[in-house]
Amino acid sequence: MTAQRRLLVRIIQDSSRHLDVATLLEIARKQDAAIDRATVYRTIALLKEHRLIDELDLMHIEGEKHYYEAKTSRDHCHMACFRCGAIMEYVSPSFDRLKKEMVQQSGFQIRVVRLEVGGICKRCQENGK
Amino acid sequence: MTAQRRLLVRIIQDSSRHLDVATLLEIARKQDAAIDRATVYRTIALLKEHRLIDELDLMHIEGEKHYYEAKTSRDHCHMACFRCGAIMEYVSPSFDRLKKEMVQQSGFQIRVVRLEVGGICKRCQENGK
DNA sequence: ATAACTGCAAATCTTTTGCTTACAG
DNA sequence: CTGTAAGCAAAAGATTTGCAGTTAT
Questions:
Q1: Does residue B41 reach within 7 angstroms of strand C, measured from its CB?
Q2: CATH number of the domain at A1-71, please?
Q3: Could you give the CA distance from residue B87 to residue B93 in angstroms, rounded to a whole number?
Q4: pLDDT in tens, B58-68
Q5: Can you tell me the distance from the alpha carbon of A90 to that of A71, in angstroms, rounded to the nearest whole number?
Q6: Most CB atoms within 10 A, among A25, A75, A77, A115?
Q7: Does residue A118 contact residue A62 with C-beta atoms inside 8 Å?
Q8: Residue B2, CB, less than 7 Å from strand C?
Q9: Helix or strand or coil: residue B45?
């Protein structure tokens, strides 16, 4: 793995936010001004293949771009607030159970799971009254 | 509602497949050759707002485009096979339960839910041996 | 040497927008 | 009349690709 790729991986892993390509590129350029958009895309493709990162759509809350996060030990759901744009994560044993059930009942071999929810977060509901 | 919009709605409702915009346009043009891509997009935006259709990504199995389906009474999950491209639907009480749990625990008001899975379908696993 | 990686620019694909004309309430 | 819808063409946004030069094995 090259230095540029290591840099990109590190940024994704260290970030608490979900990064889109433009943001990832911007951050990376602070440490390596020469890094190119194409390299970012190519690295992401690799990381996806190796299942080191997950790709998110986040209900396309802000254009059609994708967001990325380092794979965690536990799959989780993303809830995107259409009003304030906040992204919340949700982990639950029920989600794990559902996945297991899907595999058992359909024989499908799961490689990626994406559960995304769009709506209005609690705060916005209260503020919007 | 105009005739063109009714036509588009009818096509989406009657289709057993999940339609992308290009396909939807192609089908619509057989009945109204003048219909424009922009009209399709504008109609889809309306139908989404009114929650008459759901937008799917289907793990971007074939480019970045979206797919659409008429909303059914029951939310369901889509499983996309990376090998043969098949899309399978999966309905389960566990899914309903998970949604309810999410609402209760987070106070989030859900407007759209999308559970998509990518992997290898049973048939392809067997054929691929 | 050989194969993989990179930057750059151009191409592609999908979706959105501005503007003018046409239609519906 | 007045507002909404439609067609057209151009723009915008995100991602991919070809190619020539570079680096790593």
A1: yes
A2: 1.10.10.10
A3: 20
A4: 999 999 999 99
A5: 14
A6: A115
A7: no
A8: yes
A9: helix
Q: Which fold has domain B73-129?
A: Dna Ligase; domain 1 (3.30.1490)
Q: What is the pLDDT of residues B113-123, one digit of tens each?
A: 999 999 999 99
> What are the backbone angles phi and psi of residue B79, rounded to the nearest 5°?
-115, 125
Query: Which nt is closest to the CA of A41, judged by C1'?
Result: D15
Through-space separation of residue A123 CA and nucleotide D14 C1' in angstroms: 32
In this predicted structure, what is the pLDDT of residue B17? 93
Q: Residues B17, B20, B23, B24: what is their CA dihedral angle, to the nearest 10 degrees?
A: 90
B43 CA, D1 C1': separation in Å?
26
- Give residue limits of the domains in chain A: 1-71, 73-129
CA dist., res. A84 & res. A63, Å (int)? 15
Query: Which of the residues A83, A98, A121 would you substitute to probe the B interface, choosing the one with the greatest number of B C-beta atoms within 10 Å?
Result: A98
Which two structure tokens, joined as six digits, stand for A51?
């299942």
Question: Which of the 8 DSSP states describes residue B60?
Answer: G
The Cα–Cα gap between A11 and A29 comes to: 11
> pLDDT tens for residues A70-118?
999 899 999 999 999 999 999 999 999 999 999 999 999 999 999 999 9
CA A2 / C1′ D24 distance in Å: 9
Beta carbon of A37 within 7 Å of strand D?
A: yes
Residue B5: CB less than 7 A from any atom in strand D = yes
